[in-house]
Design brief:
DNA_repair_RadA, single chain
Length: 632
Amino acid sequence: MYKCMALAAQKAQDFNMRSRFLAGTRVTHSLNTLITSRRNCFCQPIRSFLESKASSSSTKHAPLHQSCCHTWPQRWFHSVSTSENQSLRGCRCFSSSFNADAGSMGITAGSLKKKTKVRTFYVCEHCGESYGQWWGKCNSCKMQGTLRKITQRLEEGGGAGLRAAEGANIGLFPQDHSAPLAQQPSESAQNSSRSSKPLLGKSWLRVGSILGPQRLTDVLKGITTSQWRMPLVGGTGMEIARVLGGGLVPGSLILLGGDPGVGKSTLLLQLCSILADGCEFYEPAPVLYVSGEESEEQISSRADRLNLSSEDLFLYSATDLELILREIQQLRPRAVVIDSIQTIYLPEAVGSAGSVVQVRECAAALLRIAKRNQLPIFLVGHVTRSGDIAGPRVLEHIVDVVLYLEGENGLSHRILRVVKNRFGSTDEVGVFEMVENGLAVVENPSQLFLSQREEESGGPVSGAIAVTMEGSRPFLVEIQALCTGSTSHFIKHSVNGLDPQRLHMILAVLSKLAGVKVEHQNVLINIVGGLQVREPAVDLAVAVSICSSYLDRQIPHDMAFIGEIGLGGEIRPVKQLDKRISEVSKLGFKRCIIPKAAEKAVRVSLVESVKLVHCATIQEVIQKIVDTFSPV
């Protein structure tokens, strides 16, 4: 079409039909003259198009003077209807070579496109908060000078991530490569759902699936709860499945964060081997591990150290997301791991890899691929100095599950904690131990967090056994306390594994109500094993360990403490008391101090194996320490 229009302009120039100003006289020519004199120069589609435009009232007598002779093809092009456009595209003169001919008329391909909008905003490099204008300080994280200007092109049809996902055009995976969740809708659901036109590029629904709202009963008809998840076998696999809520959900986007060297890549490489080998619930299938930080040889060396030799585990080292999506389309894997999201980039998006725009667009593209194809995708995220995942906060909002792998330097155990889970509870944790063959599950976590104490051993450091709940699992931890007199006016309170504000509250209650004058003492608290305790059920054990060190009274080794301390000195009951006492009984403890208000909430069977001591206030507990506990 453009080539024919350029040819028409050239013919008009040869016959002096272009408008011009000569001696102040305006010479005009109509389009009818052009069509009548040179109708044989055009093919039938272009001739029909020009004749229809010439017959319209807006162009029939429109003069072609010098100011508009170069722009009339553009005005016609924008007024072309959909049917006319399709017919002109079938013309023999329509080709990509029109640029050279149209260039003489001042027409470019970019001038015929819709004008691109440009959005300018400012993003905080520290927390990822965005603002419409520049401020000297980020109002979210209160950091100075961290706002950076970002210019983003907004084109019709979505951002760079949307276009990359649409360009991949990944089809449905075979049934044996996915969980039962990826099955097609039942026939009753198809009959009951109303028909609607496909919303191409706007929906997460898979190609060929039912579009439009569906009844909840029709969606869930014939599908049990166990069919919505992909089971994971083995000790490590079962521990990960329990943290995820019972298994891996097809189509989920999972973000795993953690400090450098904590074992994120090792854990995901073991998980890839489990999924690739298959089990009694599903057959072996390809699993793709993509790394933007390591080469294939380096990943293979780590797999050899972990004794992983799965034939269906594919390694791919790349950072271009378009290349990664192309490999996913060809391989059609059961699961994909991206290590890490901060190293992946889209060529169309602005900024370098790891920037706010790049991370957001890459995550949006991967989310679309995961939802459309029921493909579980794992993303590894870097963390900042404060422990948060690097990049924009919207990354944690986009994904379905956010996991953190925690561990202290010099300690062998690792804790997999879930922060966000759309498919299960956020209270579950998994406990692993770093061994020669990778991360192994810890069968009895309570023994891991209990120190090696000798019977009736004395010393200035006192330890009390507390029972904490991590999700549905009770953990027994030892809380150590050391009180020393201060030689200066500066008092130091140091705590490891506990909230410092919680410690200050307990010290104030002991000093005001229990008569334990620790306001002039340096108090040091340590939780053995490096576990981070977040619940108040350990308050009683913390208070008892402080009193034991201050009063030089030894705590019996067969006693545990459960209870929360209020500001009035009362001991409050805690949740899931039966599970806590049951764990105390399994590990051989004979006595347990619990709140008096929870006396009726404990089953009789537990009382027979463990002697329960009921106390109402912290003063009563301190009195029992002074009267019963042996001096150091």
